[in-house]
Design goal:
This protein has 277 residues and is α+β, with helices and mostly antiparallel strands. The chain has two domains: 144 residues, 2-Layer Sandwich (Fructose-1,6-Bisphosphatase, Chain A, domain 1); 95 residues, D-Maltodextrin-Binding Protein, domain 2, CATH 3.40.190.80. The chain is built from seven helices and 15 strands. The chain is globular and about 50 Å long. 42% of the residues are buried.
């Protein structure tokens, strides 16, 4: 019999209350993300269906009027519900100082968006005390969405969401490189992958194939925190792992290696991670 008697009951009561409170907070945050993303997705879809043209920002990446309009809507809606929270977005930068930061990519895949290709997404992540706790990715033109909460699992459903169309996501269980299917963000990264493993066909959103268990790993040494924050949590909650280019698990280090848990250590060794000090 376990010896609970040596610890006062109030300690368990307090701990249980804290865990329950945190879970309720994350559930509320996830619902807020759903509600906010639904509005943003409808606005983005309206722009997409009417057609938009892209211009180049100073960093050489494309932007449309829809990117800015969707991010403004995301910020306004979230700030009404969480006035003390901070924001970090691709188009409008950082606003506020808080332990709670909403990380926003109003249209991930702007080139696809401007070309009339449906492979673009509205991405939202909530970081609390430096840890991503909520992730939601919505692909309105594909009628799909993906979400995760820390400790709560990863899921995919139709969009708009229907409970009957929701399934839990799990990465693959492939355990040897000889049997693995690996993807990469570009040809340079693809050339660094272990030669014994097969190369996955190019897809617009490889992390989706990873959390579905269709591929075993994906190397993405590029991009920004708003590109990676939702997918790091989605992959981890689907049973996978992520290592950034410095050997940590941060989404703001320019990307890194996503994979199932069984292959991760083998791939880190093959890629000689961390890739830089």
């Amino acid at each position: 019999m376990l010896a609970f008697a040596s610890v006062p009951y109030r300690h368990f009561e307090s701990g249980a209350w804290w865990l329950a409170s945190a879970a309720m907070d994350r559930a509320d945050d996830l619902q807020l993300a759903f509600d906010t993303s639904a509005r943003a997705a409808e606005l983005a879809l309206a722009h997409f269906e009417s057609g938009v043209s892209a211009t180049m920002k100073a960093d050489g990446t494309p932007v449309t009027e829809a990117d800015r309009a969707v991010e403004r809507l995301l910020r306004e809606t979230l700030s009404e519900a969480r006035p003390d929270d901070a924001f970090l977005g691709e188009e409008l930068g950082r606003l506020g100082q808080s332990d709670r930061v909403w990380i926003l990519d109003p249209i991930d895949g702007t080139s696809f968006f401007s070309w009339g290709d449906p492979n673009w997404r509205v991405q939202i992540a909530l970081e609390v005390h430096g840890t991503t706790e909520v992730a939601l990715v919505t692909a309105p033109a594909l009628r799909r969405c993906w979400w995760a909460t820390r400790g709560g699992g990863s899921f995919e459903s139709s969009w708009p969401r229907e409970d009957t169309q929701t399934r839990r996501l799990k990465v693959s269980t492939t355990s040897t490189l000889a049997e693995a299917m690996l993807g990469a963000v570009d040809d340079e990264s693809r050339a660094r992958l272990p030669p014994s493993a097969a190369r996955a066909p190019a897809t617009p959103v490889p992390p989706v194939e990873l959390v579905r268990g269709k591929i075993d790993a994906f190397l993405a040494e590029c991009c920004h925190i708003w590109d990676h924050a939702p997918w790091v949590l989605l992959v981890e909650e689907a049973g996978g792992r992520f290592t950034d280019r410095t050997g940590g698990r941060s989404s703001d280090k320019g990307g890194g290696l996503y994979s199932n848990a069984s292959l991760h250590s083998q791939l880190l060794a093959a890629l000689q991670y961390p890739a830089r000090p």
